[in-house]
Design goal:
5-stranded antiparallel beta sheet
């Protein structure tokens, strides 16, 4: 998730294990430890544009890296805090703050390499968006009260409320998947692959992507609390197949390797952008849940097979897009 939420979760976790007189120092240690795993975003290369997305939320987020990650945080903070706290307690709070960084990211649709090096797959449970203001507010409010009142009890309540909210996200996901399965059956399709994920900042509007007979279909599913679910039919696109779409590209080339890396990162849900035949897009993400307009992709030049693909981010923050998203979120039927 975003850095603030990661830090708040780390702070709340550390508070929950602190004695009364340790709550405030544990808050700072836990917050720092909570964001430390995201230092992997600094892994970049001017020569290899895909290196950053390949290693962000990678080994530093693995469960097996937690003890070492906490130790690194402890060693960084020890010179500053050695007169205020013993080494063992500092390590404990760093461990508590760091331990759920990867797990929290696994709850999102972006996912993380939670079981690396045993498994290199990016685990994404699709229960919560990478930014969710309600989840963040729960941790912020309870963490602040715990800090103010020198009590770990409120921190533990905050963790319980956060877990309850994630459980609600799981329930909403099941509802959205059920609606999507009904939609697939109504269309007479057989889904060879299905992904349902929350849209940005909420657990009401969901994006579904499924594969059927070589095509990817995207739709928006709104699952409100006090209203019937509603389907907003979306677009479809031919799924990218390397052997068909890149017949002339040598399989051992740098570009072919980059295509394989990007395809792995995107969970295999990739396609050629219709208006840009040289761009391979990640179909999982879009500014609107009904469209295939991408958030990111790679630019490919088959004429230069031994040059890296260029990673490109596409932004659409137009007023029209924002207004349409809000209409979808509110369940309005007239989107024009």
């Amino acid at each position: 998730m975003d850095l603030l939420t990661q830090g708040l979760l780390g702070a709340t976790m550390a508070q929950s294990g602190a004695k009364q007189q340790e709550v405030r120092i544990a808050t700072g240690i836990g917050f720092f430890a909570g964001i430390a795993a995201d230092a992997d975003i600094l892994i970049q290369s001017e020569n290899d544009p895909l290196l950053n997305i390949e290693f962000h939320r990678h080994f530093t987020h693995s469960l097996f890296f937690v003890p070492l990650g906490a130790l690194i945080v402890t060693l960084l903070l020890w010179p500053l805090l050695r007169k205020r706290i013993v080494f063992s307690r500092l390590y404990l709070f760093a461990l508590l703050g760091y331990c759920l960084s990867g797990v929290l990211d696994a709850f999102t649709s972006y996912g993380t390499h939670l079981l690396w090096p045993l498994d290199d797959e990016r685990i994404a449970w699709n229960i919560i968006s990478v930014i969710d203001p309600i989840f963040t507010l729960i941790l912020l409010t309870t963490g602040f009260i715990a800090f103010k009142k020198y009590t770990n009890r409120i921190a533990r309540i905050g963790l319980l409320l956060a877990a309850t909210y994630l459980s609600f996200g799981w329930w909403q996901l099941q509802r959205a998947e059920t609606v999507t399965q009904s939609l697939i059956a109504a269309r007479g399709h057989h889904a060879e692959e299905l992904l349902v994920k929350p849209t940005l900042g909420n657990l009401v509007l969901w994006r579904s992507i499924y594969q059927s007979e070589g095509k990817l279909y995207v739709d928006a599913i709104r699952v409100g609390l006090f209203s019937e679910s509603h389907i907003y039919p979306g677009e479809s696109i031919e799924k990218f197949v390397f052997d068909r779409d890149m017949r002339t590209l040598p399989s051992a080339s740098i570009l072919a390797t980059d295509i394989a890396r990007f395809t792995h990162f995107s969970g295999g849900l990739v396609a050629i952008r219709p208006e840009q035949p040289n761009v391979l897009i990640d179909v999982r993400y879009s500014n609107l849940p009904t469209t295939i307009a991408p958030l990111w992709g790679i630019e490919m030049n088959p004429e230069q097979p031994n040059q890296h693909a260029k990673y490109t981010i596409y932004r659409d923050s137009s007023r029209t897009t924002r207004e349409k998203f809000i209409k979808l979120l509110l369940g309005e039927h007239d989107l024009d």
